[in-house]
Amino acid sequence: MEQHQKDQRRETLFMDAKSGYDRLYDGQWELAEAYCEGYKSFLDAGKTERDCISEAVFQAERHGFVPYAPGMEVKTGDKVYLTRMGKAGVFAVIGSKPLGGGLRMVASHIDAPRLDLKPRPLYEDGGLALLKTHYYGGVKKYQWMASPLELRGVICTPDGQTIRVSVGAGENEPVLVITDLLPHLGEEQMKKTVTEAFPGEGLNVLIGSRPDPSEGADRVKLAVLELLRGKYGITEHDFVSAELCLVPAGPARDVGLDRAMIGAYGQDDRACSYAGLRALFDAGDTPEYTAVCFLADKEEIGSEGVTGMQGGFFDHFIEQLCAAQGASLRDCYAHSFCLSGDVINAFDPNFPDVSDARNEARLGHGVAISKYTGRKGKSGASDASAETMAYLRRVLDQAGVFWQSAALGKVDKGGGGTVAAYLARRDIEVVDGGVPVLSMHAPFEIVSKLDCYMAYKACLAVYKG
């Protein structure tokens, strides 16, 4: 048998394991880099879920989207959006087919692990003013210590004001920090397990050290409160009705001498959220099926609450669109397809013991498609059907999307979930797909620019599918 026939047989029978870089055609890398510049700007603007929704609405309105109002008539090509409490949003382009024939969706989440302030956070100890926190989502607590942090969020007052707070984002603004024990006195600390050495109650944020010139107790705390009252017009009572959190300071950065990667906070799952949103803008004015991008909150703590995927906000919006066309919501869902856009771990050669190298996603190999996630015996996963997987394969291949199959580590080594299971409960066919990530849930996560671009192309293909 001639060599080219042997090579052709291997190409036909084997699953392609080439790096995405080996499949790029002329000009495609430049497109990926241009896309990622917009993505990095989105990351810098969206350090919290509220920031993400504000930025998403700003961009959507620039692309012709208008707020949806109950009872509004919708027709082919209309672009509408609705937000909930400023922390979740759904964006839709009405297709030429009736809604009873289903949607083409991308759903992802915009919340990320962080440190939330407690309702009564501010106290003074040892001549220092500090803030008590409660970590949100799955974090390695030691990663948040001795690093610059920003204070972000809102304060809502009883008179109806919503005051936005941002400290540490500007180049010349002060940052906050959680102190760590010096190694010279850390012998006992280093004998403990990581969980024991870094308890959640120890994540107290240093916010001030200069005392008020008056006499009395808690002079540093008083000075901090005067600064906050001067800038935001608030008192200590207002912390009770606030959503304030600590996030890593600093912008998204290129990583590597080749600038092929991006390092930033919150890429789980804003890498997929931006891809879904940007693809919706680029999908055209008259899609065949109504195209929907849902940006959900609270995924990191189980998708609970009114702004999470388990809430009724999304259903209410789609139900109103269906009612405007005289369509059944159940029929709409039963004929829909959703790409559950969520990141997955990338193979890390520094930690090979938890990885199934034959099934792990690789940086630079394209968007990662996961039939199931979950823990141990697939607990908490939606586990897409063979038919649904075949449909997605066809859509991606026809669009020239570089993709790879992926699983979340070795069996019984851990695991996790996405919003896919909550979409499946609605009778929507769904598959997980997203960007592979190194150092997931760390304050500085790493992704490949090529993979980010292919996630965008995958979302675009789903909307047009």
**Major pleated sheet:** 9 strands, mixed
- Strand arrangement, largest sheet? 1-2-3-13-4-14-20-16-18
Low-confidence runs of at least 5 consecutive residues: none
What is the level-2 CATH architecture name of the largest domain? 3-Layer(aba) Sandwich
CATH superfamily of the largest domain: Zn peptidases
Can you identify the CATH class of the largest domain? Alpha Beta
Number of helices: 11
The rounded Rg comes to 24 Å
Can you tell me the CATH topology of the largest domain?
Aminopeptidase
- What is the average of the pLDDT values? 95
Summarize the structure.
The protein has 465 residues and is an alpha/beta fold. The protein has eleven helices and 22 strands.
Mind explaining what this structure looks like?
This protein is of the alpha/beta class. It folds into two domains: 14-112 and 265-464, Zn peptidases (Aminopeptidase), CATH 3.40.630.10; 114-248, Roll (Aminopeptidase i, Domain 2), CATH 2.30.250. It is 28% helix and 24% strand. It is built from eleven helices and 22 strands. It has helices at residues 3-13, 28-45, 49-62, 194-197, 219-232, 267-282, 313-325, 329-334, 386-398, 420-424, 449-464; strands at 66-67, 79-84, 88-93, 103-109, 114-125, 128-136, 149-156, 162-167, 205-208, 242-248, 253-255, 261-264, 290-296, 337-341, 344-345, 367-370, 374-375, 403-405, 415-416, 429-434, 436-437, 445-448. Strands 1-2-3-13-4-14-20-16-18 form a nine-stranded mixed β-sheet, with helices on both faces. Strands 8-7-10-5-6-9 form a six-stranded antiparallel β-sheet. A three-stranded antiparallel β-sheet has the order 11-12-22. A hairpin with a 5-residue loop joins β11 and β12. α2 crosses α11 and α6 (267-282) crosses α11. The longest helix is centred in the first third of the chain and has 18 residues, at 28-45. It is globular. 44% of the residues are buried. The model has no long low-confidence stretch (mean pLDDT 95).
